[in-house]
Amino acid sequence: MSYATPSSDPLPGSNPSDAVQQLMQQHGGMLFGLGRRFCGNEDEAADLVQETMLEAFKGWPSFRGDAKATTWLYRIAARTCQRMHRKKGPGTGELPSDDILLDGCGFAWMHSSHAENPLDEAVRNESRERLEAAIFDLPVEYRMPLVLKEIVGFTSPEIADITGLNDTTIRVRVHRARLALRKAIENGLESPASTDRYEVQICKDLIEAKQEAMDRGADFDVPPGVLTDRCRAVFDSLDFAKDLCTSTTHHPLPEDISERIIAAINQGQNS
Fold this sequence. Notes:
single chain, mainly alpha, Rna Polymerase Sigma Factor, Chain: A, Arc Repressor Mutant, subunit A, 2 domains, disordered N terminus
């Protein structure tokens, strides 16, 4: 089950304190993980969760259920992330061109999510560290859709609803962010260069079809011998980067942060 679609949300009109504590129990850990990847450290991630929950508490009486409570909560979190980011100064930017992101593909890796030997495990751990750094290095406008899609588990239309961007923009940014992550992981591993290449546009079309299948959570199977070594290398590294994202351990919200938020909510309720 995706963390983005819990079994039940609090009902509109319910007690604000109870509703927000239920949302915190359901989503606090994932929001904390989002904050770590968006802000880069646990202190700011804790601040993100607290600000999000306090704003949710203040806004709950006006929540009428026009959207799912989950979507509503993540809208608040997205706005809070952007506000925290603006305090650090300008943060917009562009990724390199697709040609650069796809340059030098020679990556070959296991398809299984389970390491086969200690060396594989060590390489996966190193790659996971590179992935975490690469996520934080993404321009903010790419980082948010990528994290909401690959780690939290929202669909592109849901992310569009959360961020206020259109579905096409979300898909384009997620696709380019994925290419940036696979490039960052590949750069840290030794792999043979491939000279077996399609024309560039054919390779790009195949990779785009692969990414659209990833968006749907579907396999993208092609007959044996259709893919060049280069395209299959890109497919493998895209799958590996996604596997690292989705295998990120989901921890509950630390108890001290939860207690701090509950105390702030109670103080607000009594004031």
